[in-house]
Predict the structure.
Amino acid sequence: MNRMIHINVLLIVVWCVMFPNLASAQLRQNYYATTCPNVETIVRNVVNTKFKQTFVTVPATLRLFFHDCFVQGCDASVIISSSVRNKAEKDHPDNLSLAGDGFDTVIKAKAAVDAIPSCRNKVSCADILTMATRDVIALSGGPSYAVELGRLDGLSSTASSVNGKLPQANFNLNQLNSLFAANGLTQTDMIALSAAHSLGFSHCNKFSNRIYNFTRQNPVDPTLNKAYATQLQSMCPRNVDPRIAINMDPNTPRTFDNVYFKNLQQGKGLFTSDQVLFTDTRSKPTVNTWASNSAAFQNAFVTAMTKLGRVGVKTGRNGNIRRDCGAFN
């Protein structure tokens, strides 16, 4: 009998090692059909209201989702506030620029969901962030798509866990591919998800090296469109106020579209990690295809977002449903 138990435990361990993403199998569309059937409408209404108050809701929520999923998986751990004993993810230097409107969107949506007696403490913050992200993409002109739900909220959030997990503005293609591959995402997924930079803004210090001190021979990055570089220098002069931020997309900053890829063709990618998608011959064909085919890009983006939403899903004892998205139960 003991031998059989030992064998079964061994099989489970081997299974988990071979299939680390098995937890994502619990995700499905309409997960709350019986427990909270109107949850997607409730969340969408909150997002709509927030969107009318400020457009920042869109890039803030989208970026919050990315930063959450890339660190310990999609478990709303990035929303946890630091305590005296614990410095949480949100206070890591890479997360300090996350706009408050993203957090506020999730917190208000959670309150609206829990205001319905039958829904109270039934819907995770991780799932609410996933739904809200889909909704802000649609509100800004992007595709609306069915989301998989059923995540639990994470039980851990530490600033130290963020180290090396988020893409940096100066990454080359190998670094980008490596980081995304660690989350089960392909180069095609990475290029599609990079188009989130079609929205939002960046502080000048994230790209100032490209317009002032790229190299000794070329102070301005030669892959940068010259007119665009001059424009960036006027908006971000040396010693600029660090609070100053500019649009990521110089042409359609409030629309989620494939203009992002057209900008890359013209040397108007704001970050090195954007422009490299066009300058590197391995990724250039995809950029060219999506620059001329919006439908193909949107389909690829939905596929990539669905895959990203499956990363590090918490189940069973590894998670719970938080009563307050910003604090552990």
Summary: The CA atoms of residues 29 and 148 lie 4 Å apart. The longest strand covers residues 201-203. Strands lie at 153-154, 201-203, 245-247, 319-320.
